[in-house]
Amino acid sequence: MKYDTKYLPILIGSIFALGIFIGSLSNAPQTHGFLIKKNTKEKLDKLIDFIDSEYVDNVNTDSIVNLTVDNILAHLDPHSVYIPPSEQAGIAETMKGDFVGIGINFYMYNDSVAVINPVKNGPSAKAGIKAGDRILYADKIKLFGRKLPNDSLFAALKGEAGSQIELTVYRKSERKKIKLTIKRDVIPLKSVDVALLLNKTTGYIKINRFAETTFDEFKTGLTNLKKQGVKSLVIDVRDNGGGYMEEAIAIADEFLKDKELIVFTKSKNGVIEKTFATKQGSFENGNVYVLINENSASASEILAGAIQDNDRGRIVGRRSFGKGLVQREMDFNDGSAVRLTIARYYTPTGRSIQKPYSKGNEDYFKESDSRFLHGELYKKDSIKVVDSLKFKTKKGKIVFGGGGIVPDVFVPLEAERGAENVSYLLQSGIVGHFVFEQLDKNRNAFSKLTFGQFLNTINETDLYFYDFQKYLVQNGLFIKLGHNKALVKRYINAEFARQLYGDKYYYEIILKEDAMVKAVLKGDLK
Questions:
Q1: Domain match, 25 and 82 both
Q2: Burial of 288 (0-12, 13-18, 19+ CB in 10 A)
Q3: Which domain does 150 fall in, by range?
Q4: Which run of H or E residues covers position 2?
């Protein structure tokens, strides 16, 4: 798989784009359509009819309608968007928290469907699929050598729960073809990556998005950590672009006392809806820390704002994205949808953290890039705040509106200044692909190692660091890694651990030297 350098910004930003696109969604009932003046609506309908019946060339009028909708929404705000039918099903599935399939993580490697690993206890794992297997056929559908797009692959592998599919796979480690019958089942899509102990009294929970199942996943993790005796909790919403605001509210309720304000929204007509904490909180007294960065948006900011404004915990990291708009999804009959901004939300002190978008969508989304140029990712003093948007918490702490959540404790980007692309590159898919290809050369060499033995082996060598540098060059990415060697090695080693042992081991390696986590564990942030 090659990576064209012209697509580098897309590559390093792809892991954040979906969440921020989803934004802060309301679970309120859907409306029945737009309230457009009758004459205007009739004019649009008539124009489409004229083109359809009279225009000299054949025209796909559906595509014209889509362009019209896109252009209308582009004049509103950056988060009011049209979602075509081809994308709507996938997005809805992601937010639902599960799907029906065979349960594998895969990618296209040399025109073959390569299994990175089967989902633990999923249908493929139970049937005997292993990491490194190539899926050649799904029933009689040929999958290799065809450069199939992802939607075609998904269509071939998904189906009704309980239905069967016969896979023909090539197992490279054994140099043989195998036929396996797999019964499709419901596969969970985790929104909470991991809940683990950082030390004997400090727990850590990583939330990657706010989907329908996020609160339940979070509560399960928190309950398990409490049983292990945690007194402090670190909630990591870095690079979490948001999702359902109700899930963020429910999580905030776990930490706030009865009747403390969590968030309020204000509609076009000035209608204000306030949401307060209940008596149900299960962690109202322990220390709380929320980790944020420049890609933490919407629902992540609702959670961070509620904790900060109620003086309940400390916000650690860098200024968040700055999305304070609430969307509601409205469906069309053809399977498409429009996600329309219907309100602004405000943190408990009354501040809107929405950054300006009057200069257009392109300027709006590039604002985060300007933070590199201004040095904001390295020095808190470089953060631009509007003095007129000062607010005070209950205890008199000054907080700011107008552009994201400013952390209580600033932690700079780990990559050396001028090498920001390195930090984001390490969190993109290319590291996973590199590690897969390294394992694929001799998977048996790792198969019998315990995690401890693996750590000793991989920490003693720089081989994979230098191979990764070569791998980037081979794929057209001319990024120098030398000044960030320790950081790069940590991510490579962690990815090896993930593919060999699971997510928990990935985070054990990543978090050990994580700058924000280390700032919390110093014990001077209480």
A1: yes
A2: buried
A3: 99-188
A4: none
Catalytic pick among 323, 336, 355, 368? 323
pLDDT in tens, 124-135: 999 999 999 999
Q: Are strands 337-346 and 261-267 parallel, antiparallel or unpaired?
A: antiparallel
Average pLDDT, the chain: 88
Q: How confident is the model at residue 22 (pLDDT cuts 50, 70, 90)?
A: low
Catalytic residue among 133, 185, 236, 309, which? 309
d(C-alpha 345, C-alpha 249), whole Å: 12
How many Å apart are CA 287 and CA 305, to the nearest integer?
Answer: 16
Q: Is 309 a catalytic residue?
A: yes
Answer yes or no: 70 catalytic.
no
Cα–Cα dist 231/217, whole Å: 20
Confirm whether 308 is domain-assigned.
yes
pTM over 0.70: yes
505, 452 Cβ separation under 8 angstroms: no
Amino acid at 348: P
Structure confidence by residue, pLDDT tens digits, 160-199: 999 999 999 999 888 899 999 999 999 999 999 999 999 9
User: Distance (Å, rounded) from C-alpha 263 to C-alpha 252?
Assistant: 10
Rounded to whole angstroms, the Cα distance separating 408 from 434 reads: 37
Which residue among 363, 378, 410 closes a domain? 410
Contact in structure between 94 and 109 (CB atoms under 8 Å): no
428, part of any domain: yes
**pLDDT category, 6, cuts 50, 70, 90?**
very low
Give the chain's domain count: 4
> Which of the residues 298, 336, 368, 428 is marked catalytic?
298
- Are residues 267 and 395 both part of a single domain? yes
Mean pLDDT within 234-260: 97
Q: Is 323 a catalytic residue?
A: yes
